[in-house]
Amino acid sequence: MGVMEALKFFVAFTLRLFFLLTPFFALSSFLAMTSNEESREEKRRLAVSVTVSATVVCISIFLFGNWIMAIFGITVAAFRAGSGLLLMLSAVSLVYGTAQKKLEPGVKLQDLATVPLAVPITAGPATLGALMVSGMDTNGWVLKSLCVAGIICGTAAVGVMLYFSDLIEDVLGKSKIAILSKVTGLILSAIAAQMLVAGVRELFYSP
User: Fold this and answer.
1) Which long-range CB contacts under 8 A does 141-144 form with residues at least 24 apart?
2) What residues of the chain score a pLDDT lower than 50?
């Protein structure tokens, strides 16, 4: 693989992952859950924790998902179709909007870092399913290394949004963030349709 091909693959994978992570949904959820927290430093510390947790989970699923599939005897086609269906449901919920939960009384802000902000809000079941399929479809250490780098960059981009969530909210406002979340949902629906159709085709028409 040439340098330009590798760069093209890396950029395409990173952009795809960025939208799979539903960044504006994660941002709106982060803002809702931290709305009662006055300390900006505490919010930014939480953003870093969420980013690290999501990165570790995504890389683990990408690298070791095939072992999980082998243990349960699930075919790639079945998992691709199932992940596509979950991703489509996530896209529908983004387009039509869902109410964001606020921080419950007595719950510490840092307790939200891994669950629910990292998983399942940032890296949801559909996202992890898509990563697992990508891990099985990617052969060779070069491509896998590029994908891992893409995961790090993608989650880092979402992390930057969470880190500067207050500034983004001041500039865009909640209404524009909601609109961008719906646009993300439309892009996800296209990715989901592609995964679902490919999975169903493999299930019923593969020799």
Assistant:
1) 142/1, 142/6, 143/1, 143/9, 144/63
2) none
Q: How far is CA 178 from CA 72, 112, 117, 143, in A?
A: 38, 22, 18, 35
Cα(106)–Cα(6) distance, rounded to whole angstroms? 48
**Rounded to whole angstroms, how far apart are CA atoms 118 and 50?**
5
Give the helix, strand, coil percentages of the chain, each rounded to 5. 85, 0, 15
Residue 155 tokens, joined? 């989650």
pLDDT at 45: 95
106 vs 103: CA distance, rounded Å: 9
Whole-angstrom distance, CA of residue 52 vs CA of residue 31 = 18
pLDDT at residue 101, as a whole number? 56
The whole-angstrom separation of Cα 182 and Cα 205 is 34
CB atoms within 10 A of CB 148: 18
Write down the pLDDT at residue 56. Answer: 97
Phi, psi of 38 (to 5 degrees): -90, -25
pTM here? 0.84
Query: Rounded to 5 degrees, what are φ and ψ at 69?
Result: -60, -40
